[in-house]
Specification:
About 80% of the residues lie in helices and about 0% in strands. It is mainly α and about 180 residues long. Helix 5 packs across helix 8 and helix 6 packs across helix 8. The longest helix has about 35 residues. It is elongated, with a radius of gyration of 32 Å.
Length: about 180
């Protein structure tokens, strides 16, 4: 089949002819897109978009005219649209980051979080609170804590695990109120 016959068949909706058309032209589109887009994943997306557009507009092209020119125009337009969209997304992200930088003070957030965690620790049962503080504030090992409290290391591990579970369960509330 020559190019004109393939185009006539594609225009009629023949998917096998479209596959042949794709096989003949995808590398040209890929190489052209690579001149303007650096990511091979994004170039592959452009190639896919080009051939989707070719399929969608198959009834409009004239099989007696230069298909290369038609393909070039579609490819150029998709690359421009892609670049414009990428620019707008990048600009939006930069604007959002600038806004966050201006309004977000990490020190205050960390102080608030520490204060909230301290309040949660105060809600623990006395023995669990004491064990947790020895572990986290005094940096004692489970063995050292067990010796001081005259209990097994397993009991210490269980108390610390329960304290951490309580903190984890209650931290989402902090995030909700801070957000």
């Amino acid at each position: 089949m020559n190019e004109t016959e393939i185009l006539t068949e594609v225009k009629a909706g023949n998917t096998i002819a479209f596959e042949r058309l794709y096989d003949c032209y995808w590398l040209k589109v890929y190489n052209f897109a690579q001149l303007y887009i650096t990511s091979s994943f994004e170039v592959s997306e452009v190639v896919q978009d080009v051939f989707v557009k070719v399929w969608e507009s198959r009834e409009m092209f004239d099989e007696t005219k230069n298909f290369d020119g038609f393909l070039f125009i579609i490819t150029r337009n998709i690359i421009f649209n892609y670049s414009r969209r990428h620019f707008y997304e990048l600009n939006f992200k930069m604007t959002a980051l600038r806004g966050l930088e201006n309004s977000y003070d990490i020190e205050d957030e960390l102080d608030d979080l520490k204060s909230y965690i301290d309040k949660l620790i105060e809600q623990l049962p006395p023995q669990r609170r004491r064990i947790f503080k020895m572990s986290r504030e005094q940096h004692l090992t489970n063995k050292e804590i067990a010796e001081r409290c005259a209990v097994s290391e397993k009991a210490i591990e269980r108390q610390i695990t329960m304290a951490l579970k309580f903190l984890r369960d209650n931290l989402p509330m902090f995030i909700v109120f801070m957000g």
